[in-house]
Amino acid sequence: MEVWVIKTVTTGEIVETVARLCMEANYYLGDDVIRAFENSLKEELSLTGKDILKQLLMNAKIAAEDQVPMCQDTGFAVVFLELGQEVRIAGGNLYDAINEGVRKGYTGGFLRKSIVDHPLNRVNTGDNTPAVIHTRVVPGDKLKITLAPKGGGSENMSALRMLKPAEGLEGVKKFVIDTVRAAGPNPCPPMVVGVGIGGTFEKCALLAKEALLRELGKPSPLPDIAAIEKELLEKINALGIGPQGLGGRTTALAVHIEIYPCHIASLPVAVNINCHAARHKEAVL
Amino acid sequence: MPQIKLSTPLSDEVVENLRIGQKVLLNGLLYTGRDAAHKKMIELLDQGKPLPIDVKGQVIYYVGPSPAKPGQIIGSAGPTTSGRMDSYAPRLIALGLKGMIGKGKRSPEVIKAMKQHKAVYFAAVGGAAALISRSIKKCRVIAYPELGPEAIHELYVENFPVIVANDTLGGDLYEEGMKIYAVK
Ligand code: SF4
User: What are the residues facing B163 on neighbouring strands?
Assistant: First the structure.
């Protein structure tokens, strides 16, 4: 006889966890990003570029010490859920609980409210809701919540193209580099470049966003993809855009690529640009 | 790199001596303003009415801070993208505005106006918002309170760190800097 163990997670726990993650993500820059700043500081040739990297290191320290947002644009609350299929949510609707957590985190944490209710009428919702929520159902009895606040400056410079399969790897590389060149100073370089290759139109965009969640500097487990990541990072840093676009060799801290099978007729490529405020925090319930 | 300390208001002479790439620490009063406040100011000028602030010799900081915590003077206050103010800036520069602080490139029209009327554009580090807010010592709303965080605030700053990105000779650090460091 099979024994079913169902784990219960309450919406109350979810609200509290999301609220805490909103604040932590905005106050505490990840150690991986700080290490990347420190490494870039050693390599950067431009004195202005070095000064900027030093300011960013100092900024991260102040934000953590004072528990204030590292950037005033505290972003769209993008939430990734990995919902174990043996988890039962008690106390209400899961997505309502996520939004309640965002409301609580952004209000109580003195984070900026940057969301408008309608893309054309544009009235601020006043509490940074709704969140953008991506859910994956996975084996197990845990609920993993990742909160990745996304700033407008860098999101606006992101792009997606449906390439012809014949354009191949060269076409992919060209599109990534052209997108970064066109972004220039706007996404507050040094940036993190998330790339999705394959899937369908929407899957590709999601892959690019998920690529931003990987620990900085950790290469793809696929050797051929890791080699492309390395080559693209070198080429992007050779553009000369530099910190804040004022010239230098630190244009990107990392290029992360995620791939997925695709249709015989398609080669989708998405480039999701993140700024140096590469924020994400996670919790497992 | 040597740093130049400047106090606002800025004179033509001071502004004309600045060159792209110089590090500057700003002191004194600055005004804040972004899209909504600029739009209102230009509407007043179109109607032949006076502005709520005299921009002569002044510096405008493009910023929309996060809310202040209890006890804080201002929340995190890094620069916003300046390009959104490009269509308004030449009018204010013609009225004697001497400096703008923001992030990102300016349009050829703004660069031309800076050259013609002697004004500069300073880049502040985008995303260094917690650091910058430490240099802001006083903050009060002086026009358009109905705009909330977008209202025009008067800031008193000490050693606010910026970099000269466009000077009165038409120099553009975004262009020049990239050229120097691009691998041919
Ligand atoms: S692009 Fe990033 S660092 Fe720059 S202002 Fe926006 S959120 Fe902040």
Answer: B23, B123
**Digit-coded pLDDT (tens) for A170-202:** 999 999 999 999 999 999 999 999 999 999 999
φ, ψ dihedrals at A151, nearest 5°: -75, 155
Cβ pair B134:A277 closer than 8 A:
no
Average pLDDT of the residues of chain B: 96
Q: How far is CA B153 from the centre of its chain?
A: 13
Q: How many C-beta atoms surround the C-beta of residue B119 within 10 A? A: 26
* pLDDT > 70? residue A1: no
Strand B152-166 versus strand B120-123 pairing type: antiparallel
Tell me if A238 and B78 make a contact (CB, 8 A cut-off): no
Nearest-angstrom CA–CA distance, B12 and A187: 32
Specify the 3-state DSSP secondary structure of B146.
Answer: helix
CATH number 3.10.105.10 given to B4-181: no
Closest CA to A158 of A73, A274, A22: A274
Query: What is the reported pTM?
Result: 0.95
Using an 8 Å Cβ cutoff, are A251 and A189 in contact?
yes
Nearest-CB residue to A46 (from B123, B161, B181): B181
Whether A241 is in the pocket of ligand 1, judged by its Cβ within 6 Å, is: no
Q: Is A155 in the pocket of ligand 1 (CB under 6 A)?
A: no
Nearest to B104 among A48, A111, A185 (CB): A185
- Is A277 close to ligand 1, i.e. is its CB under 6 Å away? yes
Number of neighbouring beta carbons within 10 Å of residue B3 = 12
* Cα–chain center distance at A156: 13
What ipTM was assigned to the predicted interfaces of this complex?
0.94
Q: What are phi and psi of A157, to 5 degrees?
A: -95, 5
Query: Chain B residue with minimal CA distance to A243?
Result: B125
Q: What's the average pLDDT block by block, 10 residues per block, for chain B (184 residues)? A: 90 97 97 94 96 96 93 95 96 97 97 98 97 97 90 97 97 96 92
User: Domains of chain A by range and CATH?
Assistant: 7-26+70-150 (no CATH), 153-278 (3.30.1330)
Flag whether residue B103 sits within 8 Å of chain A, measured between CB atoms. yes
pLDDT at A164 over 90: yes
